[in-house]
Amino acid sequence: MSSIDNIGENEFNDEESNIIGKSKDNEDQEIADKIKDEIKKEDRNILTHEEDNQDNKEYQFCFEITSEQLKEKLQDKSGKPIMIFDIGNKERYEKEHIPGSKFVVCDQQTINSLLPKLPKNIDIVLVAEDEDYTRQMAQMAKEKGGIRTRYLKGGISSWNGEKTERQDIRISAKDLKNAIDKGKLKREDIFLLDVREYDEFKKGSIEGSKNIPLSQISSSLNEIPKDKEIITICPQGNRAGMVTFILERQGYNVKTLEEGLKGWSSAFEHYSKK
Question: What is the pTM of this model?
Answer without folding.
Answer: 0.68
